[in-house]
């Protein structure tokens, strides 16, 4: 048996669901109703500009009023209004949008400013109201009407005595939502959602006193001015060619009053394949790389949607501040929907590309200034390179490596810079780096003596950056300066001649094992130069990274904690002191020398502490 049919939807059941689950925040009702009022006003302006309306436009300010006694909120506009037929059509049919119809009808002219799309927004009024009235008069010559509904599926339409054109929506606020019957609260909500809408929105008045007259005649007069919420033409809607640096900086200060001045900004403007405008600012970022919350605001046609862009924007882009406005970002939906929206994904990859392009042009055209900002930019670029492969591909051309002398190089420049003596026997460029110049000085000086260049990798992000990106750069090895003795940092086929015989070498290892008396230590002998320390302690790069990783994952006593032989103890076979240790016949004196040489190695790392340090000091005093 086969059958076909259409599923019937019962309005009585679906209506409460729309009211309840369409929006996650109840305060959205105000955004929706004000957006409708803005739409109605802009439609009228459009009609006037096309000659379809020749009356006086007059004051188009939208008013939001509160009546505490009556527990009502009303939103009044002077837009196109509705005739009885239109109320029937647009308000009574849920999900029938007059906005869409308007856009369809006038598709040959620019209707891009119209916000409404779905024909659902109006019903958000019932999230906070027991009943709702719409009192409206069309701009066409039609009688005014009043529509009333208590949130059920029945409504009433009666005559009204509204004389002027436009619409007033009156919300009789329900008991649970009384918090909204408050001018302050409404201003706050509108400041969040409607701060940049294109038609003036007034909530109440501001009063202040001013002196009038001179001398004895001077008196205080009260000045009453409408309290306007919004800036009708926010900076991002303007032509970048007409704007100065000061304009951008002032706008930034308005958005983030407590922040330092931004380093630079990007004015976004695209028509295809989606529409998007906005300004992204590059803030001064220091050590703190936790992406700032609430710093990027998403708008759709100047209506605020969210500043919670987590999972919408790649993490590293969230270090930026600013505004993104796109009609292609859905307005009426929840965040979980936003994340999977194809347009939102396209937008995020567009923004990534734009940011990379801007950095690239800054680097190419203003390298000096780019370098001075590198401290902040570097964190961001490294973060991006680690987390976004597409960004990595672009950023490897403008990402910089800084050496301990403060010189900055691109990847290619640096390879060139070290090509003469930092290529190992496998043909790999060896990038040597220091994470702490204070404690790694002995190693740094030894490397410098060999003519090696050393990179500075001392920010929080650097250790992650090293292990994360090394494999993405071709033919490069990164080694911390204390990961091996200087001769072995860069493996070549050359070896220093040792002054010791094989027997002496073996004997030396035994002496050290006995004197240090620590199973975890595996001393080995190496022919270094005579002026290097008698003993060096190093930690192989691989081992240290493992340890760092395990520490990061909270691994106290984890897999690599106290791993035997984690530190390498290298005895310098060519050191004079080591020669003396070998020749010493008194065991106690020999042990003392070994311990002292070992402690010196620890001291050179800033690692000699507690009882070991006390013993070292006492021993030194004895020797002196
Ligand atoms: N203040 C108003 N003045 C004139 N018409 C209005 C007003 N408010 C609503 N309307 C009409 O009612 C229609 C339905 O409004 P509703 O808010 O439900 O949907 P929308 O604005 O079209 O889309 P969205 O769901 O995206 O908000 C509007 O498209 C418009 O034609």
From TrEMBL:
It comes from the Bacteria. The keyword Cytoplasm applies. Keywords: ATP-binding, Chaperone, Cytoplasm, Nucleotide-binding, Stress response. It holds the Pfam family HATPase_c_3. ATP binds at residues 32, 36, 77, 82, 97-98, 167, 335. PROSITE patterns: HSP90 (PS00298). GO terms for molecular function: ATP binding; ATP hydrolysis activity; ATP-dependent protein folding chaperone; unfolded protein binding. InterPro entries: HATPase_C_sf, Heat_shock_protein_90_CS, HSP90_C, Hsp90_fam, Hsp90_N, Ribosomal_Su5_D2-typ_SF. Belongs to the heat shock protein 90 family. NCBIfam families: PRK05218.1 (NF003555). This is Chaperone protein HtpG. It comes from Flammeovirga aprica JL-4. The gene is htpG.
């Amino acid at each position: 048996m086969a059958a076909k049919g259409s599923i019937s939807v019962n309005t009585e059941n679906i209506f409460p669901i729309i009211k309840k689950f369409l929006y996650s925040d109840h305060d959205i009702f105000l955004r929706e109703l004000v957006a409708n009022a803005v739409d109605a006003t802009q439609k009228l302006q459009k009609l006037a500009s096309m000659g379809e309306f020749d009356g006086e436009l007059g004051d188009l300010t939208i008013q939001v009023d509160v009546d505490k006694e009556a527990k009502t909120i009303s939103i009044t506009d002077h837009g196109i209004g509705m005739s009885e037929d239109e109320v029937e059509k647009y308000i009574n049919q849920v999900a029938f949008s007059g906005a869409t119809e308007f856009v369809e009808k006038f598709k040959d002219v620019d209707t891009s400013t119209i916000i409404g799309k779905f024909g659902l927004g109006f019903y958000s009024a019932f999230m906070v109201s027991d009943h709702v009235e719409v009192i409206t008069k069309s701009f066409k010559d039609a009688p005014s009407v009043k529509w009333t509904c208590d949130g059920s599926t029945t409504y009433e339409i009666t005559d009204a005595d509204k004389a002027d054109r436009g619409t007033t929506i009156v919300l009789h606020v329900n008991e649970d939502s009384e918090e909204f019957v408050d001018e302050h609260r409404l201003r706050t909500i509108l400041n969040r959602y409607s701060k940049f809408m294109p038609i003036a929105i007034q909530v109440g008045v501001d009063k202040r006193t001013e002196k009038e007259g001179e001398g004895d005649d001077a008196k205080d007069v009260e000045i009453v001015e409408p309290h306007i919420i919004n800036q009708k033409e926010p900076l991002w809607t303007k032509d970048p060619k007409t704007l100065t640096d000061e304009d951008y900086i002032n706008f930034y200060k308005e958005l983030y009053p407590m922040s330092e001045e931004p380093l630079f900004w990007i004015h976004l403007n695209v028509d295809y394949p989606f529409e998007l405008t906005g300004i992204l600012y590059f803030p001064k970022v220091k050590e703190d790389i936790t992406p700032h919350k609430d710093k990027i605001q998403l708008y759709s046609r100047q209506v605020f949607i969210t500043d919670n862009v987590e999972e919408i924007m790649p993490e590293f882009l969230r270090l930026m501040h600013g505004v993104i406005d796109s009609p292609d970002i859905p307005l009426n939906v929840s965040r979980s929907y936003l994340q999977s929206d194809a347009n939102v994904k396209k937008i995020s990859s567009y923004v990534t590309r734009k940011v990379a392009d801007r950095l690239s042009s800054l680097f190419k055209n203003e390298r000096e200034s780019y370098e001075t900002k590198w401290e902040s930019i570097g964190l961001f670029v490294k973060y991006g390179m680690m987390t976004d492969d597409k960004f990595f591909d672009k950023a490897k051309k403008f990402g910089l490596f800084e050496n301990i002398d403060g010189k900055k190089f691109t990847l290619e420049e640096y390879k060139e810079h070290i090509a003469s003596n930092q290529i190992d026997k496998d043909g790999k460029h060896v990038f040597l780096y220091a994470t702490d110049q204070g404690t790694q000085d002995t190693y740094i000086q030894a490397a410098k003596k060999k003519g090696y260049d050393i990179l500075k990798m001392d920010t929080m992000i650097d250790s992650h950056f090293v292990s994360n990106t090394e494999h993405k750069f071709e033919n490069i090895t990164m080694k911390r300066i204390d990961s091996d003795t200087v001769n072995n940092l860069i493996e070549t086929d050359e070896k220093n001649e040792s002054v010791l015989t094989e027997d002496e070498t073996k004997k030396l290892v035994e002496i050290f094992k006995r004197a240090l008396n620590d199973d975890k230590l595996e001393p080995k002998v190496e022919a270094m130069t005579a002026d290097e320390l008698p003993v060096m302690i190093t930690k192989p790069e691989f081992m240290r990274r493992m340890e760092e990783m395990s520490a990061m994952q909270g691994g106290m006593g984890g897999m690599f904690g106290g791993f035997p032989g984690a530190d390498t103890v290298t005895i310098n076979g060519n050191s004079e002191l080591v020669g003396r240790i070998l020749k010493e016949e008194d065991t106690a004196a020999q042990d003392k020398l070994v311990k002292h040489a070992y402690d010196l190695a620890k001291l050179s790392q800033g690692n000699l502490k507690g009882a070991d340090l006390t013993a070292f000091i006492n021993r030194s005093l004895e020797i002196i």
